[in-house]
Amino acid sequence: MRRYIMFKESHITSKKIADYRITASQLNAFDWFLHNEKDNAEQELISTINRDSVGHTEPQDKGKSFEFVINLCLKDDNIITQIIEHSVESVIVDFSSKEHTFRFKFDAEIIVKMYDLLKHQRVHSQQVFINKYITLQSEKRVELYGYVDYLTPLTVIDLKTTGNYNFPKYITNWQTYVYGYILADRISSVDFIATDFKNVFHEIYNIEHVNYIISFKDLQ
Question: Is residue 25 in a domain?
Answer without folding.
Answer: yes
